Amino acid sequence: MNIALPAVLAILSGAVAEGIVLYFLLSLLAESGAVGKNYLGHDIPVSAGISFPVSVILVFIVYMLFSRYEPSFSTYLTGITAISFLGFIDDMLGQRDTLGFKGHFGALFRGRLTTGGFKALGGGFIALFMALSLSSPGSLASNWGNIIINTLIIALFTNMLNLLDLRPGRALKGYLFFLLLIIGLAAGEVNWLLLAPLLGAVLVYLPVDLKARAMMGDAGSNVLGLTLGYYSVIHLSWPCRIGVLIFLIAMHIYTEKYSLTRTIEKVPWLRAIDQLGRSNENG
């Protein structure tokens, strides 16, 4: 069967699922007091990104009913659900007196576990779990180099989208850009049924984020980053993965020293893309 029609239907299913979940979730978050101030000081629901794994699960249920579910999808589903949970914990309980890898791991070495440190450690273990799942048990001993590379790509991509999530729509635009780049580098040879549900959910959530009606928080940005890392390791060639890893390491080194927001504001074409779709009220 041609994959185009199932992929389109999966995107639409993800969009419908996200629309339904968001309709109830945003009210639930507001009524539960799960609100926070965005960068403009406005109180809006936070952690709305927990809708992403829920929407994907709903579409995967449909896959099962129509015999389109693949066993490998379970690893993906475990990863996005677990990382969203860790992000939700950080969104709800996070201390903002410690920031960045250096800050969180520095606190850990001093005997203090921050929510960010817990998320980073948990994210690393999730990345390792996903990387290990791609290797057969008999090849683990001879495949550690590949496992380490894949683990680092998944873990660093997870945090990369978190670094972007500082303005309405920025992380989502980054997700769409990197997704298109991965598809291009893979010459279109990707598992569309795996990618499609979350893509549909992102397209529905994007206007909500751009209008600053809610913040997806780490519960959402971590899901987006983890999926990009996972897509990279299952679809890209070895040279491409090395290139992706070098880029991710360079970006993390840069953001430890410089503000990504200030960099974007200084480059006209980046600033124009960053502001695309926002209203005057939300920057």
What's the layout of helices and strands?
Layout: H1 4-31, E1 35-37, E2 43-45, H2 51-65, H3 73-93, H4 100-109, H5 115-133, H6 144-164, H7 170-185, H8 192-210, H9 217-235, H10 238-257, H11 260-266, H12 268-275
Antiparallel strand pairs: 1-2
Summarize the structure.
The chain is mostly helical and 283 residues long. The protein is 72% helix and 2% strand.
Number of strands: 2
Low-confidence stretches: none
Strand order, largest beta sheet: 1-2
How many discrete structural domains? Answer: 1
Sheet/helix structural class: mainly alpha
Beta-strand residue percentage: under 5%
Distance, first to last CA: 46 Å
Largest sheet: 2 strands, antiparallel
Given the structure, what is the number of helices? 12
What share of the residues lie within helices?
Answer: over 70%
Q: Give me the strand/helix succession.
A: HEEHHHHHHHHHHH
Radius of gyration: 18 Å
| Morphology call | globular
Average pLDDT, to the nearest integer? Answer: 89
Task: Describe the protein.
The termini are far apart. This protein is 72% helix and 2% strand. A two-stranded antiparallel sheet has the order 1-2. With 283 residues, it is mainly alpha-helical. β1 (35-37) and β2 form a beta hairpin. It is globular and about 55 Å long. The model has no long low-confidence stretch (mean pLDDT 89). α1 (4-31) packs across α2 (51-65), α5 crosses α6 and α7 packs parallel to α9 (217-235).
